[in-house]
């Protein structure tokens, strides 16, 4: 997992896929329309979405095997819980088509994040994460982007 300011993205040595992802991310604004955007076919793509954050009891703990996620808010603040995947109990087995596996929620996360505009979080396949969380007890309507990069390209 990596959490940093967008302005520091150039400091990471992840190659051309990383550069393309951040060039796209930096072109977005809170006015960008929701939808799927191809950056490099199915190897690198983005999903822009708007929704209301939820309380922990309504969120899902997930991980991916094929893609690494870069997540950033374009409007608002989103909370995340992070867990070590290898210590979790599978709730819904891995779905190859959707590249997602869901887990039972542990009592305690190993990390809690609040991602606001200007920051990003990157989740590798070994990082289970619970996105969509309200910060505190106040739900908020946010806009965010998830960039999916085939892990083998990093």
Distance between the termini: 13 Å
By DSSP (H or I, 4+ residues per run), the number of helices equals 1
CATH class: Mainly Beta
Q: Architecture in CATH?
A: Sandwich
Identify the quaternary structure here: single chain
**Can you list the strand order of the major beta sheet?**
1-10-5-12-3-2
What is the strand content?
over 45%
Low-confidence stretches: none
> What series of H and E elements makes up the topology?
EHEEEEEEEEEEE
Q: Which descriptor suits the 3D outline?
A: globular
Count of domains: 1
Q: Within the CATH hierarchy, at the fold level, what is the topology? A: Jelly Rolls
Helicity level = under 10%
Strand element count: 12
Sheet of most strands? 6 strands, antiparallel
Give the structural class. mainly beta
**Could you give me the name of the CATH homologous superfamily?**
YhcH/YjgK/YiaL
Mean pLDDT: 96
Q: Write down the Rg.
A: 15 Å
Describe this structure in words.
The protein is mainly beta. The chain contains one helix and twelve strands; from the N terminus they run βαβββββββββββ. The strands form three sheets. Strands 1-10-5-12-3-2 form a six-stranded antiparallel sheet. A hairpin with a 3-residue loop joins strand 2 (35-40) and strand 3. The mean pLDDT is 96.
How is the topology of this model organized?
Elements: E1 2-5, H1 15-26, E2 35-40, E3 44-52, E4 61-63, E5 67-75, E6 77-84, E7 90-95, E8 100-103, E9 111-116, E10 119-123, E11 127-133, E12 141-150
Antiparallel strand pairs: 1-10, 2-3, 3-12, 4-8, 5-10, 5-12, 6-9, 6-11, 7-8
């Amino acid at each position: 997992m990596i959490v940093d300011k967008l302005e520091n993205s150039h400091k990471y040595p992840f190659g051309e896929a990383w550069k393309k992802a951040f060039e796209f991310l930096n072109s977005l604004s809170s006015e960008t329309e929701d939808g799927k955007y191809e950056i490099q076919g199915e190897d690198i793509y983005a999903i822009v979405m708007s929704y209301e954050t939820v309380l922990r009891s309504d969120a899902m703990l997930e991980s991916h095997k094929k893609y690494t996620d870069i997540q950033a808010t374009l409007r608002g603040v989103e909370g995340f819980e992070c867990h070590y995947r290898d210590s979790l109990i599978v709730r819904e087995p891995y779905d190859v088509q959707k590249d997602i596996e869901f887990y039972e929620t542990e009592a305690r996360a190993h990390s809690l994040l609040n991602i606001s505009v200007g920051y990003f979080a990157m989740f590798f396949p070994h990082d289970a994460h619970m996105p969509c969380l309200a910060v505190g007890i106040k739900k908020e309507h946010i806009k965010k982007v998830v960039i999916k990069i085939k892990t083998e390209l990093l």
